[in-house]
Amino acid sequence: MVAPAIVRQYASGQNITLEVADQEVVLHYALALLNQAGLVGRRPDGSAGPLLFKGGTALRKCVFGSTGRFSQDIDLDATRRNGFEAEIEEALASQRPFHGIALTIRSFRYSAEGNFSGTIAYEHEHGSGAFELQISYRLDPILEPVDLALEPQSYFRRVEFPPPVLHGLDPYEMIGEKLMACNRRLGGSGKDVYDLFLWSQRPFAEDLVRRLAVLKAWTDRRKSPTYEPVRLLAAIVPRSFRWTDLAGLVPRGLTADPEPICQRVRERFAFLAELGEDEQRLLADQTAHREHALFRRLRDEARARAHDVPR
User: Fold this and answer.
1) Pick from 49, 46, 4, 54: which is nearest to 25 by CA?
2) What is the Cα–Cα distance from 76 to 55, expressed in whole angstroms?
């Protein structure tokens, strides 16, 4: 584990608490441990581990870097049910302590869909805490998974090993999932809206994001609320989300004011409502699920488009 002075310097530079900085560093070590266990990212033989990195922490660490909000969990996708949580528990136990950090699954639960969520307790010489680790057992990703390089952080040069090469959902697909999260959880956390706000400040292919939102809505298999782009955009206002969740997680120099954040997202994502004929047809089928051939065709088009978009 890096020295406490390095963590303090990092906290000061990012204008965050020591606890948030410490957890940010611990998450880096936890991902490295899962990588060394062959579960996440590239293995020594070049093959990819079975769990795909995604979510807010993936966006922070591999896309937004120091401009992203801090995240306090690890989200993973598994494309097959294989008891990966048992393998994770074995990896944590066999590597305890991992460079001075003891990691233990303190508690766990399963959702109605069988997805795993565990509270990982950590302890090192200078502190302790916990974070959540989730494994979602889903269908195949819409886009092909990609390698995810960690964005440089000042503490990297003090870490005992080089940054691992991770592997996970394409960032465009992560943004599609963020849109679905906002649609499902009106009244929930403002973190997902904030991630869309950060994405809105980057160059990106609007047509691919729109297509992914439609494809994600079709695979979501939710009867309520259905995804209606115009309704979603109108609902992205401060009162629709819980902004206290962002307290202490926004780095120095970045806004946390809900009003301009929501306005920027509504304006920058207005293209979501500009649906093509095939997209309208698939969206109309998001509850009946009869248009399998259309879904496959639109998915294949999205996969081809993903090779030629701003990154």
Assistant:
1) 4
2) 8
pLDDT band at 139 (very low <50, low <70, confident <90, very high): low
Phi-psi region of 123 (alpha: psi -120 to 50; beta: other; left: phi over 0): beta
Collapsing DSSP to helix, strand or coil, 224 comes out as coil
CATH 3.10.450.620 residue window(s) in the chain: 4-169
Q: Is the pLDDT of residue 137 over 70?
A: yes
Q: Residue 254's pLDDT band (boundaries 50, 70, 90)?
A: confident
pTM for the complete prediction? 0.94
Dihedral sign for Cα atoms in the order 144, 149, 150, 151:
negative
pLDDT range class, residue 41, cuts 50, 70, 90: very high
Buried b (16+ CB within 10 A) or exposed e, 140-159: ebbbebbebebbebebeeeb
In CATH terms, the superfamily for domain 4-169 is JHP933, nucleotidyltransferase-like core domain (3.10.450.620)
| Side chain identity at residue 282, one-letter code | L
- Hey, what long-range contacts does 237-243 have (CB within 8 A, 24 or more apart)? 237/262, 238/262, 240/186, 240/187, 241/182, 241/186, 241/187, 241/188, 241/189, 241/190, 241/192, 241/193, 242/187, 242/188, 242/189, 242/190, 243/190
Cα separations in angstroms, 130 against 85, 166, 266: 17, 22, 34
- Please compute the mean of the pLDDT values over residues 138-152 and round it to a whole number: 92
